[in-house]
UniProtKB/TrEMBL annotation:
Origin organism lineage: Eukaryota, Metazoa, Chordata, Craniata, Vertebrata
Subcellular location: Cell membrane
Keywords: Cell membrane, Coiled coil, Lipoprotein, Membrane, Phosphoprotein
Topology relative to the membrane: Lipid-anchor
GO biological process, one term: regulation of cell shape
Organism listed in the record: Anolis carolinensis (Green anole)
The protein, known as: Paralemmin
Annotated region (Disordered), positions in chain: 34-67, 80-124
GO cellular component: plasma membrane
Top-level taxon in the UniProt lineage: Eukaryota
Biased composition (Basic and acidic residues): 49-67, 91-102
Chief localisation class: membrane
Extent of Polar residues compositional bias: 81-90
Presence of keyword Lipoprotein: yes
InterPro entries: Paralemmin
């Protein structure tokens, strides 16, 4: 039982580090893309939309990774504190249910102007 718990802790730590690395990579990528967009000449509407969509997807992935990291940290803490694996699994199930409910609620996206992605005039 103790060996099984130790293995589970090690696996959670590995997953946590992987998620942190992925999150750091996504944040660096997003920062680089924003920097490139600021210095780039006006591109076509299609390119702008594609880039904006990709940035939104990256932001969503980053948010999901942050939530995963928080969940893994909680699970790891519980395992290290000796809470039984069965109660940990129950807590994970409860957290997953809560996260699913949150994902069902509509999210409000920031407008392009609030992100500084468009100038004062919006031409159509």
């Amino acid at each position: 039982e103790k060996r099984k718990r130790q293995t589970e802790i090690e696996n959670k730590r590995r997953q946590l580090e992987d998620d942190r690395r992925q999150l750091q990579h996504l944040k660096s990528k997003a920062l680089r893309e924003r920097w490139l967009l600021e210095g780039a000449p006006s591109s076509t509407a299609e390119e702008g939309e594609a880039m904006k969509k990709q940035m939104e997807e990256d932001d969503l992935k980053a948010k999901e990774l942050e939530e995963s990291i928080q969940r893994l940290e909680k699970e790891l803490e519980q395992l290290e504190n000796g809470i039984s694996a069965s109660s940990t699994k129950e807590n994970v199930a409860e957290e997953t249910a809560k996260e699913e409910k949150l994902q069902l609620t509509p999210k409000v996206s920031p407008s392009p102007s609030s992100l500084g992605l468009c100038g004062g005039n919006m031409e159509t």
